Amino acid sequence: MRTRTPVVIAGLLATALAAQGCTGGGGTPNGGGGDGTPRKGGTVQVLQNADFSYLDPARGFDGGVNAFYRLVYRTLITKAPANAADPNAMVPDLAESLGQVSEDGLTWTYKLKAGVRFDTGAPITSKDVKFGISRGWDPEIGIGAPYLKQFLAAPEGYQGPYRSGDLSTIRTPDDRTIVFTLKAPFPEFDAVLSMPSAVPFPVGTGGGSAFINDIVASGPYDLATFTPGSTIELKRNPNWDAATDTVRTALPDAWKFTIGVEGATIDERLIAGQGADINAIAGTVQTATIARLQDPRYQERVIKAPSTCTTYMSLNTTKGPLGDVRVRQAINYAVDKSSVLNATGGTQFATVATTIIPTSVAGHADHDRYPSPDHTGDVAEAQRLLTEAGQGNGFTLTLDVRSNPVAQRQAEAIQQALQRVKIDVKLNVIDVSTYYETIGTPSQQHDAAITGWCPDWSSSASTFLPPLFDGRVVTEKGNQNLAQINDAAVNAEIDRIRALTDLAAANAAWGELDKKIMELAPIVPLNVENRIFLPGENVAGIVAPQGDIDYAILGLEDPSRG
């Protein structure tokens, strides 16, 4: 942000964001005192506490790794670059155009661009796209983005190419044409093909654990070295052709991800800005750092991005007392969201959530089914419901939580709030790198979990409610419906809304469904967290319109530095 006015950071950020749309300054990329233009060359350093979930895009499905995937992989369709007029728009990537849909909405046809290749130099063909997508049906490998499995009309019992062979509902009439058959019309299918589970791979590759420590790149960068839990280094992919890619500028010569650095240490390094750290980026700063960023020396580097993600506590409806809707409603009343907000870092970092769909996602409708003064909780109403449900003397609940300071503080706030209604909360702390896989495995999941959900595209709520509450998509691994709720009326309404071709009408319906789901209380919405970044002074081109940095378009202002 290009202001040196020594005002408090809240005012600075609010004003700058309103005027600049979350870019580094005046709509131009962030820079370190020069002209703010990212240039070709140099190495971008990425500092992070936890390892990526998986390099294999059929397995990985979280915000951090999705940003990484954008550097090394391509899909038929992808989200527009973050500096586009509409960063939520879907644009062709490997495909020549958006999909051509049949009159009945069941068939979508795409044609590959000429000249697209893997890092091996081999052409990317329609058969490779089909093969990469079909890997998502493998019960061990396909634990990532679920949408293709939900919408494509795969044969009953199909388990991917390694176990079941060819997927007949994807046709490849020639090497550049691919045709998909859907179960039912879904007007947003272009967006489905932007998911990491749609990455192409050479036919026959990637079985078992082959892609755990290696990749086959289709994007501008390839894996140079990978030491799990320590470092990932990327080099240029010489077989990526910029002429075929309108999304990625790929300005840096290389990327280095340093893993396992404590959050506080990352902040100190970025503030100090010494050596290669002037070329470094990281995730959101720690809560304890925010006051220091009021210093005018740092304000021009600060970027605050409003998130599209809801942080919530899931309530496992298959576990004991939580099977009773009155108990789940009581917990919604009992949680002190104000205390959770303070544990998150206060109003600088988050706002209290009362809905599932956040305000930044189309389909949001304002409502608060479980109100209380200042969001501190309604203990009396919670106790009344528990008594009615025969749980007036309380019970014990095990809460899964990530092993990071903010998540543990949030869990402790919930623990203290529920003590007021005699619910004894035991904390089960799980390593960050394995957390989502663990809670996404029902056999390992406990009574509740603190987690979050971000839409995979923000132009509708179609990727917010269905993954979390459709009872037909509960799986043994990679499960997103942590509440394991399976309500026939909710399922039917999901189907009805998905088929609507009028996006405005669909979004209004998603907002109404949000209200109905909260009556069932399968989760406790907690807050919507903002992201506050402090990039190194030589990093330029940072744009984060929905809380995530688009790696594909950033670079270094002076590649010779650091």
TrEMBL record:
Biological processes, Gene Ontology terms: peptide transport
Any GO CC annotation of this UniProt entry: ATP-binding cassette (ABC) transporter complex
Q: Keyword Membrane on this protein?
A: no
Q: Carries keyword Signal?
A: yes
All residue ranges annotated as the Solute-binding protein family domain in the record: 90-470
Q: Pfam families recorded for this chain?
A: SBP_bac_5
* The organism's place on the tree of life at top rank: Bacteria
Instruction: Return the Gene3D superfamilies for the record.
Output: Dipeptide-binding Protein, Domain 3, Periplasmic binding protein-like II
GO MF, one annotated term: peptide transmembrane transporter activity
Concerning PANTHER family, the annotation shows: ABC TRANSPORTER SUBSTRATE-BINDING PROTEIN (PTHR30290:SF83), PERIPLASMIC BINDING COMPONENT OF ABC TRANSPORTER (PTHR30290)
What is this protein called in UniProt? Peptide/nickel transport system substrate-binding protein
Species per Swiss-Prot/TrEMBL record? Catenuloplanes niger
